[in-house]
Amino acid sequence: LFAFGLIAIGIAPGQETFVAIYSKNRPEWTISELGVYTNRSVVVSLYDTLGTAARSFIINQASVEVVICDAEEKASALVKCKSECPTLKYIIMMDACSKQFKDTAKQAGIAVYGFDEIEQLGAKLDPKPSLEKPKMDDLCTLCYTSGTTGTPKGVMLTHGNVIATTTVFQYLTNVKLSNEDVLISYLPLAHMYERIVENAAFQCGARVGFSRGDIKLLSEDIVELKPTMMPLVPRILTRIFDKVTSTSN
């Protein structure tokens, strides 16, 4: 429905359309990603930690037409930079936003839609267009590096790249996921590591639960979601270890 909703508001499917996702981990992130892929379009991930200059650079370099955003504060920052980002035409809000924000965006030349609204428009679209499936060599995502100096560097990954990496991940790590498994999504989906592991989970019918994105609440999220698998990096493991040892002492 989300893929059809994008078409309903005038966003053309195909490899010429670049859609940015600017959000913390949540179900709408993944729904947006899969909807964009369904339309053979390209996902551009924006980190929460990006500064104004880096964010505008990415939007301009990728000619981003649509940004799917979670919070009004971040969306307002995009509207303020409209003069620096002439390709930006649409903002799709995951959370509710104020009328004042919508009016300000409209004055800047940006149309604002709610996430649920896009799905509803997709459901109502009639007739529904026949969509061409993505090809292995199609561009899947532009993943911008987070740890390099100077301007952000966009890594061009095809659907074939992602499928191959997901397959190799399962083979080399000997991970045998099933529909009994639960993955907790904590690491940023703007990173490919998290997306690859989630792809592996979906391929095997496993479930994905989304943490609240706060390291202080992570232990509570783990208790609630009861994950059998958790993608992490050494820095996070160190913080968990320090918290456990300090509590035990």
TrEMBL record:
This is long-chain-fatty-acid--CoA ligase. Residues 2-243 form the AMP-dependent synthetase/ligase domain. One of its GO terms (molecular function) is long-chain fatty acid-CoA ligase activity. PANTHER family: LONG-CHAIN-FATTY-ACID--COA LIGASE, LONG-CHAIN-FATTY-ACID--COA LIGASE 5. Its EC number is 6.2.1.3. Keywords: Fatty acid metabolism, Ligase, Lipid metabolism. GO terms for cellular component: endoplasmic reticulum; membrane. It is an enzyme of class 6 (ligase). It comes from the Eukaryota. The keyword Lipid metabolism applies. InterPro entries: AMP-binding_CS, AMP-dep_synth/lig_dom, ANL_N_sf.
